Amino acid sequence: MKALAARRHHRLAPVVLLLMALLVTGGIYAALAPTEAQAETVSTEDIETGKKLFQANCATCHGPNAEGTEGVPSLVGVGAAAVDFQVSTGRMPMQANGPQAMAKPPQFGPEQTAALAAYISSLGPGPAIPTDEQVDAELGDPANGMALFRTNCAMCHNAVGAGGALSEGKFAPSLFDTSERNIYQAMQTGPQSMPVFNDANITPDEKRDIIAFLVEQREGSAGGASLGSLGPVSEGVWAWVVGLGLLIGAAVWIGAKSS
């Protein structure tokens, strides 16, 4: 019994207990954590097709195994959602170097984009392409989406998603013409200057609420002309240039008539 008690009070016992506690905590977290960053199940044929497309169109910048090159990020672990967003919006492949990749007509069709996404997702787990249910605006709550959007997104994208200027020649694009799937994927993956909003920051249901709010903004302004939805700048220009101009014109007309 004395020998057993001595082993229990060994000077390394706290270290061993701490390591065991860390292992148990990590195991529980791995079992219960959100499963957003799981690799999708795709066919071997899609992966091989995507690999050929990648090597022909993307490997020059991103490396032959998507490991990245100097000044160009690795794509291992970015997930299918990042590939689908960048390629389907035409941002990748880039047309020219600049402060940020510009959206343009996509170079690849839906099947080729899916194959590229399958290949990249096979290299390491990452955010998956959302389901139709996850991006269905009719299932979302626009009121909650408005609160979430104006808390997390409006400082860059404007209060209604009209876009806005950033620093160093960058800008937050307008979301009026962005598809619901790509809005969701942008929140998942954080392209360019945008932060990542994973499921621990904004849940899938809350992402759908944000989409519902943004879709509502496309129906027009209940208060009349939106003036580009750019806020006080366009409203101030209208008030000072047009409104004040009309007042001055009226004053001149009244003066001319009275003389």
UniProtKB/TrEMBL annotation:
The cytochrome bc1 complex is composed of a cytochrome b (QcrB), the Rieske iron-sulfur protein (QcrA) and a diheme cytochrome c (QcrC) subunit. Keywords: Cell membrane, Electron transport, Heme, Iron, Membrane, Metal-binding, Repeat, Respiratory chain, Translocase, Transmembrane, Transmembrane helix, Transport. Residues 45-124, 140-218 form the Cytochrome c domain. The chain crosses the membrane at residues 237-256. It is an enzyme of class 7 (translocase). It is a multi-pass membrane protein. The lineage of its organism: Bacteria, Bacillati, Actinomycetota, Actinomycetes, Micrococcales. InterPro entries: bc1_cytC-su, Cyt_c-like_dom, Cyt_c-like_dom_sf, Cytochrome_c_Oxidase_Subunit. The keyword Transmembrane helix applies. It holds the Pfam family Cytochrome_CBB3. It is found in: Cell membrane. This is Cytochrome bc1 complex cytochrome c subunit. Its EC number is 7.1.1.8. The keyword Transmembrane helix applies. Coiled coil: none annotated. It comes from Myceligenerans pegani. Its main location: membrane. It catalyses: a quinol + 2 Fe(III)-[cytochrome c](out) = a quinone + 2 Fe(II)-[cytochrome c](out) + 2 H(+)(out). Gene3D superfamilies: Cytochrome c-like domain (1.10.760.10).
